[in-house]
Amino acid sequence: MEEPVDTATAILASAAVLLRECTFDDISYRALADEVGISERTIYRQYPTRAHLLAALSNWIEQTCFPLPPFVTVPDFCAAVHERFRAFDTLPAYAYVGARASAITPTLDTEPAYVTRAIEAMLDVAAPTLNRRDRRRVAASLRYFSSAMFWARLRTGFDMDAGEICDAFDHAVAAVLARLPEATWAPR
User: Fold this and answer.
1) Separation between Cα atoms, residue 95 and residue 179, nearest integer Å
2) SS3 state at 185
3) 106: confidence class by pLDDT, cuts 50, 70, 90
4) DSSP string over 56-125
5) Once rounded to an integer, what is the mean pLDDT over residues 120-143?
6) Does residue 75 share a domain with residue 153?
7) What's the mean pLDDT when you consider all of the chain?
8) Are residues 14 and 66 in the same domain?
9) What are 14-30's pLDDT values in tens digits?
10) Which of 29, 66, 71, 172 could form a disulfide with 145 if both were Cys (CB 3.0 to 4.6 A apart)?
11) 1 part of a folded domain
């Protein structure tokens, strides 16, 4: 027996299917309603604007297609991001949705993303004496360098593949972390 799927999830799953055939801009609420088998009004109730749909679709794709493996140390973080960048290369249309969604004003919640909290927790362990302001600044930098937006800019702007993007990511992480005072790092 199949589990019932809620309407919001059905809409997002169908939008992901349509992304294989066309761009997000080409997905109309009418086509999406037809794909799901519901009324257009139902979609508008779930996602009143395309920005709401884009943000929700990006979050859903990230959770289902590109979950960031857990990490505790900086090397674990780098390995997790490398894995994600390789996954982006296999499903670029999905990764571009994530990149585009990160460029819009937040429409859903203002709670920090899982990856931001995980990076801050990693920094709490790796650099326990780092002050709060600098920890947040470093976390924001690492969040950006591990994002679909960073991947998309290097992919489209420089025609880099995942391996080259991973190298650029490693350079960026090393540069950010090198700016931290030696005294902030936990003893090894």
Assistant:
1) 30
2) coil
3) low
4) HHHHHHHHHH-PPPP-SSHHHHHHHHHHHHHHHHHSHHHHHHHHHHHTSPP-S--SPPHHHHHHHHHHHH
5) 91
6) yes
7) 88
8) no
9) 999 998 888 899 999 99
10) 172
11) no
DSSP code, position 13: H
Q: Does 53 map to a domain?
A: no
* Cβ contacts of 51 within 8 Å, gap of 6 or more: 104, 105, 107
pLDDT at 100 over 70: yes
pLDDT band at 78 (very low <50, low <70, confident <90, very high): very high
Tally the domains of the chain. 2
Q: Do residue 42 and residue 105 come from a single domain?
A: no
- Which residue range forms the structural domain that includes residue 179? 61-184
**Percent of residues, the chain, with pLDDT higher than 70:** 92
**Exposure letters 17-35 (e unless 16+ CB within 10 A, then b):** ebbeeeebeebebebbbeb
Residues 24 and 108 in one domain: no
Q: What local confidence, expressed as pLDDT, does residue 105 receive?
A: 57
Tokens 């899982």 locate to: 114
Q: Is 1 a residue whose pLDDT tops 50?
A: no
Using the Cα atoms of residue 133, residue 136, residue 140 and residue 145 in order, give the sign of their dihedral. positive
Whether 32 and 103 map to the same domain: the answer is: no
- Residue 15 belongs to a domain with what CATH number? 1.10.10.60
